[in-house]
Amino acid sequence: MNPEPNRVAGESTPLFNDEQLSRDIGHVIQPHQRPPVYTFFFDYNYTPGKDSDSLAVRSLARTWHVIKVTLYSNHVNFLLVMVPIGIVAGAVGWNPTTVFTLNFFAIIPLAAVLSFATEQIAMKLGESMGGLLNATFGNAVELIVSIVALKDGQIEVVQSSMLGSILSNLLLVMGMCFFLGGLCHRGQTGSGTEQGFSATVAQTTCSLMTLSSASLVIPAALYAVMNQNGSDDKFQVALTLSRATAIILLLLYILYLVFQLRTHSNLFDAESQNAAELEAEQPIMGAISSAVVLVVVTVLVAICAEYLVGSIDDIVESANLSKAFIGLILIPIVGNAAEHVTAVVVALRNKMDLAMGVAMGSSIQIALGLTPSLVILGWAINQPMSLHFETFETVAFAVSVLVATYTVQDGKSNYLEGAMLLGLYMIIAIAFYATPSDALHKAGVITG
Protein backbone atom coordinates (compact mmCIF):
# COMPACT_ATOMS: atom_id res chain seq x y z
CA MET A 1 0.00 0.00 0.00
CA ASN A 2 1.46 3.34 -1.04
CA PRO A 3 1.94 5.80 1.77
CA GLU A 4 0.01 9.02 1.47
CA PRO A 5 2.21 11.97 0.39
CA ASN A 6 3.00 14.59 2.98
CA ARG A 7 0.53 17.43 3.03
CA VAL A 8 1.41 20.93 4.15
CA ALA A 9 -1.31 23.22 5.46
CA GLY A 10 -2.10 25.99 3.05
CA GLU A 11 -4.61 28.77 2.65
CA SER A 12 -7.30 26.29 1.59
CA THR A 13 -6.67 23.75 4.34
CA PRO A 14 -10.00 23.12 6.14
CA LEU A 15 -10.18 23.90 9.82
CA PHE A 16 -12.00 20.66 10.54
CA ASN A 17 -10.78 17.64 8.59
CA ASP A 18 -12.64 14.40 9.21
CA GLU A 19 -10.19 12.40 7.10
CA GLN A 20 -7.31 13.41 9.37
CA LEU A 21 -9.43 12.71 12.46
CA SER A 22 -10.23 9.22 11.15
CA ARG A 23 -6.55 8.41 10.71
CA ASP A 24 -5.71 9.71 14.18
CA ILE A 25 -8.21 7.46 15.98
CA GLY A 26 -7.55 4.41 13.80
CA HIS A 27 -10.85 3.87 12.01
CA VAL A 28 -13.16 5.59 9.59
CA ILE A 29 -15.94 7.65 11.14
CA GLN A 30 -19.23 7.30 9.31
CA PRO A 31 -21.69 10.22 9.31
CA HIS A 32 -24.23 8.31 11.42
CA GLN A 33 -21.57 7.61 14.08
CA ARG A 34 -20.96 11.28 14.85
CA PRO A 35 -23.06 13.42 17.18
CA PRO A 36 -25.76 15.13 15.08
CA VAL A 37 -24.79 18.60 16.32
CA TYR A 38 -21.16 18.05 15.28
CA THR A 39 -22.19 16.69 11.89
CA PHE A 40 -24.49 19.63 11.21
CA PHE A 41 -22.08 22.38 12.25
CA PHE A 42 -18.54 21.04 11.83
CA ASP A 43 -18.47 18.14 9.36
CA TYR A 44 -16.54 19.44 6.34
CA ASN A 45 -17.68 16.59 4.06
CA TYR A 46 -21.27 15.88 5.01
CA THR A 47 -24.41 17.77 6.05
CA PRO A 48 -27.62 15.99 7.13
CA GLY A 49 -30.52 16.55 4.77
CA LYS A 50 -28.56 16.82 1.52
CA ASP A 51 -30.21 13.62 0.28
CA SER A 52 -33.68 14.30 1.67
CA ASP A 53 -36.75 13.59 -0.46
CA SER A 54 -38.09 17.02 0.44
CA LEU A 55 -36.95 19.72 -2.00
CA ALA A 56 -37.07 22.42 0.68
CA VAL A 57 -35.00 20.42 3.17
CA ARG A 58 -32.56 19.34 0.48
CA SER A 59 -32.11 22.92 -0.77
CA LEU A 60 -31.58 24.31 2.73
CA ALA A 61 -29.13 21.54 3.61
CA ARG A 62 -27.08 22.06 0.46
CA THR A 63 -27.06 25.82 0.98
CA TRP A 64 -25.83 25.38 4.55
CA HIS A 65 -23.20 22.88 3.35
CA VAL A 66 -21.80 25.42 0.87
CA ILE A 67 -21.75 28.11 3.57
CA LYS A 68 -20.06 25.72 6.02
CA VAL A 69 -17.41 24.63 3.54
CA THR A 70 -16.72 28.25 2.63
CA LEU A 71 -16.45 29.37 6.25
CA TYR A 72 -14.01 26.58 7.15
CA SER A 73 -11.89 27.03 4.01
CA ASN A 74 -9.36 29.39 5.59
CA HIS A 75 -8.07 30.24 9.04
CA VAL A 76 -8.54 34.00 8.51
CA ASN A 77 -12.28 33.59 7.95
CA PHE A 78 -12.98 34.33 11.61
CA LEU A 79 -12.61 37.96 10.47
CA LEU A 80 -15.80 37.60 8.39
CA VAL A 81 -17.64 38.95 11.43
CA MET A 82 -16.14 42.31 10.43
CA VAL A 83 -18.10 42.34 7.14
CA PRO A 84 -21.58 43.13 8.51
CA ILE A 85 -20.11 45.40 11.20
CA GLY A 86 -18.08 47.31 8.62
CA ILE A 87 -21.07 47.71 6.29
CA VAL A 88 -23.28 48.94 9.15
CA ALA A 89 -20.53 51.34 10.28
CA GLY A 90 -20.30 52.82 6.80
CA ALA A 91 -24.05 53.00 6.30
CA VAL A 92 -24.73 54.63 9.67
CA GLY A 93 -21.79 57.02 9.36
CA TRP A 94 -19.49 56.09 12.22
CA ASN A 95 -16.12 57.73 12.77
CA PRO A 96 -14.09 57.58 9.49
CA THR A 97 -11.15 55.89 11.22
CA THR A 98 -13.46 53.20 12.58
CA VAL A 99 -15.13 52.73 9.19
CA PHE A 100 -11.76 52.42 7.43
CA THR A 101 -10.37 49.96 10.02
CA LEU A 102 -13.45 47.71 10.08
CA ASN A 103 -13.73 47.51 6.29
CA PHE A 104 -9.97 47.06 5.97
CA PHE A 105 -10.14 43.90 8.10
CA ALA A 106 -13.42 42.84 6.45
CA ILE A 107 -11.86 42.68 3.00
CA ILE A 108 -9.03 40.34 4.14
CA PRO A 109 -11.24 37.24 4.67
CA LEU A 110 -13.36 38.19 1.65
CA ALA A 111 -10.19 38.06 -0.46
CA ALA A 112 -9.43 34.60 0.96
CA VAL A 113 -12.96 33.33 0.18
CA LEU A 114 -12.68 34.81 -3.32
CA SER A 115 -9.46 32.87 -3.83
CA PHE A 116 -11.01 29.67 -2.47
CA ALA A 117 -14.08 29.87 -4.75
CA THR A 118 -11.87 30.63 -7.74
CA GLU A 119 -9.71 27.57 -7.03
CA GLN A 120 -12.81 25.37 -6.88
CA ILE A 121 -13.95 26.56 -10.31
CA ALA A 122 -10.41 26.38 -11.71
CA MET A 123 -10.18 22.66 -10.85
CA LYS A 124 -13.11 22.04 -13.20
CA LEU A 125 -11.75 24.06 -16.13
CA GLY A 126 -8.40 22.41 -16.73
CA GLU A 127 -4.85 23.66 -16.34
CA SER A 128 -4.68 26.59 -18.80
CA MET A 129 -8.08 28.17 -18.23
CA GLY A 130 -7.88 27.41 -14.52
CA GLY A 131 -4.53 29.15 -14.23
CA LEU A 132 -5.82 32.20 -16.10
CA LEU A 133 -8.94 32.34 -13.91
CA ASN A 134 -6.83 32.06 -10.75
CA ALA A 135 -4.58 34.90 -11.91
CA THR A 136 -7.54 37.10 -12.86
CA PHE A 137 -9.58 36.70 -9.69
CA GLY A 138 -6.42 36.70 -7.60
CA ASN A 139 -6.27 40.44 -8.29
CA ALA A 140 -10.03 40.99 -8.13
CA VAL A 141 -9.91 42.81 -4.78
CA GLU A 142 -7.35 45.34 -6.02
CA LEU A 143 -9.39 45.83 -9.20
CA ILE A 144 -12.66 46.41 -7.32
CA VAL A 145 -11.08 48.83 -4.83
CA SER A 146 -9.38 50.70 -7.69
CA ILE A 147 -12.56 50.98 -9.76
CA VAL A 148 -14.44 52.37 -6.75
CA ALA A 149 -11.62 54.84 -6.06
CA LEU A 150 -11.41 55.84 -9.73
CA LYS A 151 -15.15 56.49 -9.88
CA ASP A 152 -14.73 58.63 -6.76
CA GLY A 153 -11.94 60.64 -8.39
CA GLN A 154 -9.24 59.26 -6.07
CA ILE A 155 -6.70 58.93 -8.88
CA GLU A 156 -3.71 59.17 -6.55
CA VAL A 157 -5.04 56.26 -4.49
CA VAL A 158 -5.62 54.20 -7.65
CA GLN A 159 -2.08 54.81 -8.89
CA SER A 160 -0.55 54.06 -5.50
CA SER A 161 -2.58 50.86 -4.99
CA MET A 162 -1.60 49.50 -8.41
CA LEU A 163 2.05 50.31 -7.79
CA GLY A 164 1.81 49.00 -4.22
CA SER A 165 0.38 45.68 -5.40
CA ILE A 166 3.31 45.24 -7.78
CA LEU A 167 5.88 46.13 -5.11
CA SER A 168 4.10 43.88 -2.61
CA ASN A 169 4.43 40.89 -4.94
CA LEU A 170 7.93 41.70 -6.18
CA LEU A 171 9.50 42.53 -2.82
CA LEU A 172 7.30 41.33 0.06
CA VAL A 173 5.87 38.07 -1.37
CA MET A 174 8.97 37.03 -3.31
CA GLY A 175 11.19 38.14 -0.41
CA MET A 176 9.21 36.01 2.05
CA CYS A 177 9.41 33.04 -0.33
CA PHE A 178 13.17 33.39 -0.74
CA PHE A 179 13.77 34.05 2.97
CA LEU A 180 11.58 31.35 4.56
CA GLY A 181 12.14 28.84 1.78
CA GLY A 182 15.88 29.50 1.93
CA LEU A 183 15.98 29.00 5.69
CA CYS A 184 14.00 25.77 5.43
CA HIS A 185 16.21 24.38 2.63
CA ARG A 186 19.56 25.98 3.53
CA GLY A 187 21.47 22.70 3.75
CA GLN A 188 24.16 21.94 6.30
CA THR A 189 26.40 24.58 7.87
CA GLY A 190 29.40 25.17 5.63
CA SER A 191 27.72 23.38 2.71
CA GLY A 192 24.70 25.55 2.10
CA THR A 193 22.26 24.90 -0.75
CA GLU A 194 20.04 27.17 -2.83
CA GLN A 195 16.53 26.71 -4.18
CA GLY A 196 16.15 26.66 -7.95
CA PHE A 197 13.52 27.81 -10.45
CA SER A 198 13.28 28.40 -14.19
CA ALA A 199 15.75 31.17 -15.07
CA THR A 200 14.17 31.53 -18.54
CA VAL A 201 10.73 32.24 -17.11
CA ALA A 202 12.19 34.60 -14.52
CA GLN A 203 14.10 36.54 -17.18
CA THR A 204 11.01 36.80 -19.38
CA THR A 205 8.86 38.14 -16.56
CA CYS A 206 11.59 40.54 -15.41
CA SER A 207 11.92 41.88 -18.96
CA LEU A 208 8.18 42.60 -18.97
CA MET A 209 8.43 44.28 -15.58
CA THR A 210 11.29 46.45 -16.89
CA LEU A 211 9.07 47.43 -19.81
CA SER A 212 6.27 48.40 -17.42
CA SER A 213 8.78 50.45 -15.43
CA ALA A 214 9.75 52.28 -18.62
CA SER A 215 6.07 52.98 -19.29
CA LEU A 216 6.01 55.02 -16.06
CA VAL A 217 9.42 56.66 -16.43
CA ILE A 218 8.79 57.99 -19.96
CA PRO A 219 5.58 59.97 -19.14
CA ALA A 220 7.26 61.36 -15.99
CA ALA A 221 10.36 62.41 -17.93
CA LEU A 222 8.31 63.98 -20.74
CA TYR A 223 6.19 65.90 -18.26
CA ALA A 224 9.29 67.15 -16.41
CA VAL A 225 10.86 68.42 -19.66
CA MET A 226 7.67 70.18 -20.75
CA ASN A 227 7.18 71.65 -17.28
CA GLN A 228 10.76 72.99 -17.32
CA ASN A 229 10.08 74.64 -20.67
CA GLY A 230 6.89 76.22 -19.33
CA SER A 231 4.55 74.36 -21.71
CA ASP A 232 0.84 74.72 -21.00
CA ASP A 233 0.00 71.45 -22.74
CA LYS A 234 1.94 69.17 -20.40
CA PHE A 235 -1.17 67.74 -18.72
CA GLN A 236 -2.91 66.83 -21.97
CA VAL A 237 0.29 65.49 -23.58
CA ALA A 238 0.98 63.22 -20.58
CA LEU A 239 -2.62 62.01 -20.64
CA THR A 240 -2.56 61.29 -24.39
CA LEU A 241 0.76 59.46 -24.08
CA SER A 242 -0.58 57.42 -21.14
CA ARG A 243 -3.69 56.30 -23.04
CA ALA A 244 -1.72 55.27 -26.12
CA THR A 245 0.83 53.47 -23.92
CA ALA A 246 -1.98 51.68 -22.05
CA ILE A 247 -3.31 50.22 -25.32
CA ILE A 248 0.19 49.01 -26.27
CA LEU A 249 0.71 47.42 -22.84
CA LEU A 250 -2.62 45.59 -23.05
CA LEU A 251 -1.68 44.20 -26.47
CA LEU A 252 1.66 43.04 -25.07
CA TYR A 253 -0.13 41.39 -22.13
CA ILE A 254 -2.39 39.47 -24.53
CA LEU A 255 0.72 38.43 -26.47
CA TYR A 256 2.31 37.28 -23.19
CA LEU A 257 -0.74 35.12 -22.42
CA VAL A 258 -0.50 33.49 -25.85
CA PHE A 259 3.23 32.95 -25.26
CA GLN A 260 2.64 31.40 -21.82
CA LEU A 261 -0.45 29.33 -22.49
CA ARG A 262 -0.03 28.33 -26.14
CA THR A 263 3.14 28.75 -28.19
CA HIS A 264 5.79 28.40 -25.44
CA SER A 265 3.87 26.60 -22.71
CA ASN A 266 6.78 24.11 -22.49
CA LEU A 267 8.83 26.80 -20.72
CA PHE A 268 6.25 26.83 -17.94
CA ASP A 269 5.98 23.02 -17.61
CA ALA A 270 7.71 22.90 -14.23
CA GLU A 271 5.30 25.44 -12.81
CA SER A 272 2.32 23.54 -14.22
CA GLN A 273 3.54 20.24 -12.80
CA ASN A 274 4.02 21.82 -9.37
CA ALA A 275 0.52 23.27 -9.55
CA ALA A 276 -0.88 19.84 -10.43
CA GLU A 277 0.85 18.29 -7.43
CA LEU A 278 -0.42 21.03 -5.14
CA GLU A 279 -4.00 20.75 -6.34
CA ALA A 280 -4.21 16.96 -6.62
CA GLU A 281 -7.42 16.77 -4.61
CA GLN A 282 -10.86 17.03 -6.18
CA PRO A 283 -13.00 20.16 -5.77
CA ILE A 284 -15.27 20.08 -2.73
CA MET A 285 -17.85 22.46 -4.20
CA GLY A 286 -19.64 22.31 -7.52
CA ALA A 287 -19.03 24.90 -10.22
CA ILE A 288 -22.47 26.50 -9.76
CA SER A 289 -22.06 26.77 -5.97
CA SER A 290 -18.58 28.23 -6.40
CA ALA A 291 -19.87 30.74 -8.94
CA VAL A 292 -22.63 31.85 -6.56
CA VAL A 293 -20.07 32.31 -3.75
CA LEU A 294 -17.89 34.25 -6.19
CA VAL A 295 -20.70 36.63 -7.10
CA VAL A 296 -21.85 37.18 -3.50
CA VAL A 297 -18.31 37.82 -2.24
CA THR A 298 -17.56 40.18 -5.13
CA VAL A 299 -20.62 42.26 -4.22
CA LEU A 300 -19.57 42.34 -0.55
CA VAL A 301 -16.04 43.39 -1.50
CA ALA A 302 -17.46 46.20 -3.64
CA ILE A 303 -19.63 47.44 -0.74
CA CYS A 304 -16.77 47.33 1.78
CA ALA A 305 -14.44 48.97 -0.74
CA GLU A 306 -16.95 51.79 -1.24
CA TYR A 307 -16.93 52.61 2.48
CA LEU A 308 -13.17 52.10 2.79
CA VAL A 309 -12.37 54.46 -0.10
CA GLY A 310 -14.97 56.97 1.09
CA SER A 311 -13.19 57.33 4.44
CA ILE A 312 -9.69 57.86 3.00
CA ASP A 313 -9.84 61.67 2.82
CA ASP A 314 -10.83 61.93 6.49
CA ILE A 315 -8.11 59.44 7.45
CA VAL A 316 -5.51 61.52 5.61
CA GLU A 317 -6.57 64.64 7.51
CA SER A 318 -6.95 63.10 10.96
CA ALA A 319 -4.03 60.63 10.99
CA ASN A 320 -1.65 62.72 8.84
CA LEU A 321 -1.00 59.75 6.56
CA SER A 322 -0.34 60.33 2.88
CA LYS A 323 -2.66 58.82 0.29
CA ALA A 324 0.44 57.28 -1.22
CA PHE A 325 1.10 55.27 1.98
CA ILE A 326 -2.53 54.10 2.18
CA GLY A 327 -2.55 53.03 -1.46
CA LEU A 328 1.01 51.75 -1.67
CA ILE A 329 1.22 49.79 1.60
CA LEU A 330 -2.16 49.27 3.33
CA ILE A 331 -4.52 48.41 0.45
CA PRO A 332 -2.16 45.84 -1.17
CA ILE A 333 -1.92 44.03 2.18
CA VAL A 334 -5.68 43.48 1.98
CA GLY A 335 -5.75 42.32 -1.61
CA ASN A 336 -2.66 40.11 -1.55
CA ALA A 337 -3.15 38.33 1.77
CA ALA A 338 -4.30 35.04 0.22
CA GLU A 339 -1.55 35.11 -2.42
CA HIS A 340 1.07 35.71 0.28
CA VAL A 341 0.05 32.54 2.12
CA THR A 342 -0.06 30.42 -1.04
CA ALA A 343 3.36 31.56 -2.29
CA VAL A 344 5.08 31.05 1.08
CA VAL A 345 3.53 27.59 1.58
CA VAL A 346 4.71 26.31 -1.82
CA ALA A 347 8.16 27.87 -1.27
CA LEU A 348 8.45 25.92 2.00
CA ARG A 349 7.62 22.80 -0.02
CA ASN A 350 10.51 23.69 -2.36
CA LYS A 351 8.13 24.37 -5.27
CA MET A 352 9.87 27.58 -6.28
CA ASP A 353 8.58 27.63 -9.86
CA LEU A 354 5.03 27.81 -8.57
CA ALA A 355 5.97 30.38 -5.92
CA MET A 356 7.60 32.55 -8.59
CA GLY A 357 4.53 32.07 -10.77
CA VAL A 358 2.30 33.45 -8.02
CA ALA A 359 4.52 36.45 -7.23
CA MET A 360 5.77 37.40 -10.69
CA GLY A 361 2.61 36.40 -12.55
CA SER A 362 0.45 38.62 -10.37
CA SER A 363 2.89 41.53 -10.80
CA ILE A 364 2.80 41.22 -14.58
CA GLN A 365 -0.98 41.09 -14.66
CA ILE A 366 -1.23 44.26 -12.59
CA ALA A 367 1.49 46.11 -14.52
CA LEU A 368 0.46 45.11 -18.04
CA GLY A 369 -3.21 44.28 -17.52
CA LEU A 370 -4.99 46.03 -14.65
CA THR A 371 -3.17 49.39 -14.66
CA PRO A 372 -3.58 50.01 -18.42
CA SER A 373 -7.21 48.85 -18.16
CA LEU A 374 -7.86 51.44 -15.44
CA VAL A 375 -6.32 54.15 -17.64
CA ILE A 376 -8.72 53.21 -20.44
CA LEU A 377 -11.65 52.91 -18.00
CA GLY A 378 -10.84 56.40 -16.71
CA TRP A 379 -10.85 57.60 -20.29
CA ALA A 380 -14.32 56.07 -20.76
CA ILE A 381 -15.82 57.62 -17.60
CA ASN A 382 -14.04 60.97 -18.02
CA GLN A 383 -11.57 60.49 -15.16
CA PRO A 384 -8.03 61.61 -16.12
CA MET A 385 -6.22 58.49 -14.90
CA SER A 386 -2.72 58.48 -16.41
CA LEU A 387 0.60 56.64 -16.22
CA HIS A 388 2.27 59.81 -14.93
CA PHE A 389 2.85 58.75 -11.34
CA GLU A 390 4.42 60.79 -8.56
CA THR A 391 8.20 61.03 -9.09
CA PHE A 392 9.20 59.28 -5.86
CA GLU A 393 6.78 56.40 -6.57
CA THR A 394 8.20 56.02 -10.07
CA VAL A 395 11.78 55.94 -8.76
CA ALA A 396 10.86 53.42 -6.03
CA PHE A 397 9.23 51.18 -8.64
CA ALA A 398 12.17 51.38 -11.05
CA VAL A 399 14.69 50.58 -8.30
CA SER A 400 12.56 47.65 -7.06
CA VAL A 401 12.35 46.14 -10.56
CA LEU A 402 16.13 46.53 -10.94
CA VAL A 403 16.89 44.81 -7.63
CA ALA A 404 14.37 42.01 -8.30
CA THR A 405 15.86 41.41 -11.75
CA TYR A 406 19.41 41.05 -10.38
CA THR A 407 18.11 38.74 -7.66
CA VAL A 408 16.33 36.22 -9.91
CA GLN A 409 18.50 36.31 -13.04
CA ASP A 410 20.56 33.23 -12.07
CA GLY A 411 17.51 31.04 -11.44
CA LYS A 412 18.52 30.42 -7.81
CA SER A 413 17.50 31.89 -4.47
CA ASN A 414 18.59 31.84 -0.83
CA TYR A 415 17.51 33.44 2.42
CA LEU A 416 20.02 36.31 2.10
CA GLU A 417 18.46 37.40 -1.20
CA GLY A 418 15.05 37.17 0.45
CA ALA A 419 16.24 39.38 3.30
CA MET A 420 17.50 41.93 0.75
CA LEU A 421 14.10 42.12 -0.96
CA LEU A 422 12.29 42.41 2.37
CA GLY A 423 14.74 45.10 3.50
CA LEU A 424 14.06 47.19 0.39
CA TYR A 425 10.31 46.84 0.89
CA MET A 426 10.64 48.01 4.51
CA ILE A 427 12.74 51.01 3.44
CA ILE A 428 10.10 52.05 0.90
CA ALA A 429 7.28 51.53 3.41
CA ILE A 430 9.04 53.61 6.08
CA ALA A 431 9.76 56.36 3.54
CA PHE A 432 6.09 56.71 2.61
CA TYR A 433 4.96 56.42 6.23
CA ALA A 434 7.34 59.14 7.41
CA THR A 435 6.33 61.50 4.61
CA PRO A 436 3.69 64.12 5.62
CA SER A 437 0.29 63.79 3.96
CA ASP A 438 0.74 66.82 1.70
CA ALA A 439 4.43 66.41 0.84
CA LEU A 440 3.82 64.04 -2.08
CA HIS A 441 0.85 65.91 -3.49
CA LYS A 442 1.88 66.32 -7.07
CA ALA A 443 1.73 69.75 -8.58
CA GLY A 444 2.09 67.94 -11.86
CA VAL A 445 -0.60 65.34 -11.33
CA ILE A 446 -3.47 65.51 -13.78
CA THR A 447 -6.52 66.17 -11.65
CA GLY A 448 -9.01 67.28 -14.21
From TrEMBL:
GO molecular function: calcium:proton antiporter activity
Cited Pfam families: Na_Ca_ex
Boundaries of every Sodium/calcium exchanger membrane region domain copy: 98-261, 290-433
GO cellular component terms given for this protein: endomembrane system; fungal-type vacuole membrane
Entry membrane topology: Multi-pass membrane protein
Family: Belongs to the Ca(2+):cation antiporter (CaCA) (TC 2.A.19) family.
NCBIfam families the record matches: caca2, cax
Name assigned to this protein: Vacuolar calcium ion transporter
Organism (species): Hirsutella minnesotensis 3608
